[in-house]
């Protein structure tokens, strides 16, 4: 079986397992969505209303039957109706997903673009200005919650300097959230890339390259870059997971109507179709990224010694 | 190395383009309004959408309260009593919904009947309601319970007026119509072309902010023309900004703490009274930089409000806990039969003042030996409805129709739609029954006082503060005048500078 075929098979199997587990966990959440809806919407709490809602939301059917029905509809593009808003979940996700994906992907794409040169120059002169600056940045970014940093950047860049308009609805409103995601990933990826470059400098072949007359920077690039890229791509996988979680917080902070914000509002209402759809989208996102990383590593070939 | 240089160049170009676009000037936009709340949908029967849709200037009621809290006709022209359970309501002529359909007795009756069939909160005052169109502008209303002041009933937020369209959606009559709606995020509003003065009304983008600091920063960054409900701690700073106008105003809202009577630790009224007595309301007022200690269920400017501030007495609170069997251990914590006295106290970010009060409440209960875990939850209504809390800090307009009955009936009557505390008292319900037959305002105030006294004794709620709220305005809306609540944030006249 070819690598892409293996990856596809693994991805589909994983999605099926995740969907079943998620369906079970969400169904087992404490508090009945019907009871919540009746109280939150001030519906008459008579038997007919309860039975009507349970039937409408298919909560009166056995678990396996519900799961099977949900799965069959899900793969056909019918993701159900939100218990909370009464709107089709797929339509809501299609409207919101581009924003979330733009945020997450832009941040994730920007990070390695900057991490490679920064990590390279940090490794070129260990304990030099760039090395110390990236180390400081890494510690700061890891220690500070993105929400807090977001508020600070909002105040400085949006209020004091007026360089950006952080709450506009055009793409400029995404600059800060994207920058926050990119900064976090940049800090991690830069350090990972630098660490593996430095590891190369301790290898005999690196010393041979220098002895042959290559400059340190040329030797680092020729013999260390591919090696360090491996580690960075692996770290990128973890960053992609982090980005999914952080988009929800940033969407709430910046008032962006993405799927993370929708999720936050849907949890307390036990909005099963929305929660299930979110899990599936995030799972698909992570699996596709994992597959992409695996393909990238495969394309790069065996890791240099 | 070439690859690296290419990457560097690409990065530089990307950053430069981002920085360049960030400073692009924008054409004139609609008025931009920000607040911590937004309608959860456009179905007026669901939850508190009736309130939110009226607050957004989308819907209207038959009667409403004006800027001074006085009950006035809105879509109705008058109401007269026919007999004990029957009223006749006359509509104003010439009013239209935003699709151009007339606001007729038939349409209004169908909409209100739909609401009463689907929203229990609409039944709080009059019980089941029946509507019959007698002619194009006259509705005969029959109530299950006698209603001495039908105008107040029709000013209650669940009874927003709308026309039911063939597809089951609703069309409203307020000064603004919905152009687009993104749940939990944003509503684009345009002037309702069938509402007087439409040509003078700018479109509005109404946005929800999940974080009060973000709302403040959006105003400071020039991204909002109206920021409703600014956090108190930001007011001093904002007042120094020459481009902004900050207006503070007393509101009909009360800050209160629901005490969940279904929770084991709180089933005993002595424990609930102890919590009520332990709270020092002046410290809460300090924490939110404004407001007055509550005298009871109503803001002090209402004629039926209490006159005396709720007491604080830590010694009496401790004695009540002792009497209830919650004794203090060597560690200073109270327990009963091995179970510690631990409470989860919630607040929600849409009311930042409540969040600011959380640590104060925790600190005030600690000396009594009560351990408190504080939590902030997003969907306050859903969480309160689920009953998964011990104490819930809450903001509630307690006299939205200018009358004391609705709040007590809808929130504390046994089984009422908004009874989140699980409180059930036949004696209390009997007191409330008095509202059904008494129309004299002074005597209704007496009933309200009697009902509050019963609430003080049974303590399913602790009334905390009568707050002051703040709005921030850009020059485009510097003429905006806030009314005493968030029931009418957007109205026919919002003081546009043009």
Describe this structure in words.
Chain B: Residues 1-27 form the signal peptide. The complex is a heterodimer of chains A (305) and B (498). Chain A has 305 residues and is an all-alpha fold. Chain A has a domain at 96-272: MetI-like fold, CATH 1.10.3720.10. Chain A contains twelve helices and no strands. In chain A, helix 5 (89-124) packs antiparallel against helix 6 (129-143), helix 5 runs antiparallel to helix 10 and helix 7 (146-160) crosses helix 10 (216-254). Chain A is elongated, with a radius of gyration of 24 Å. The model of chain A has no long low-confidence stretch (mean pLDDT 87). In chain B, helix 7 runs antiparallel to helix 9. Chain B has helices at residues 2-22, 49-55, 105-118, 150-154, 212-220, 235-238, 269-278, 281-287, 314-323, 352-365, 380-386, 405-412, 426-437, 441-458; strands at 31-35, 63-65, 71-73, 76-83, 86-91, 129-135, 138-143, 163-164, 170-171, 176-182, 186-191, 204-208, 226-228, 245-250, 253-259, 292-293, 327-328, 334-336, 339-340, 342-347, 371-376, 391-397, 461-466, 468-473. Chain B folds into three domains: 2-41 and 174-249 and 469-477, D-Maltodextrin-Binding Protein, domain 2 (3-Layer(aba) Sandwich), CATH 3.40.190; 60-171, Dipeptide-binding Protein, Domain 1 (Dipeptide-binding Protein, domain 1), CATH 3.90.76.10; 253-466, Roll (Dipeptide-binding Protein, domain 3), CATH 3.10.105. In chain B, the strands form six sheets. In chain B, strands 10-11-12-1-13-24-14 form a seven-stranded mixed sheet, covered by helices on one side. Chain B has 498 residues and is an alpha+beta fold. Chain B is globular, with a radius of gyration of 25 Å. Chains A and B meet through helix 2, helix 5, helix 7, helix 10 and helix 11 of A and helix 1, strand 12, helix 5 and helix 11 of B.
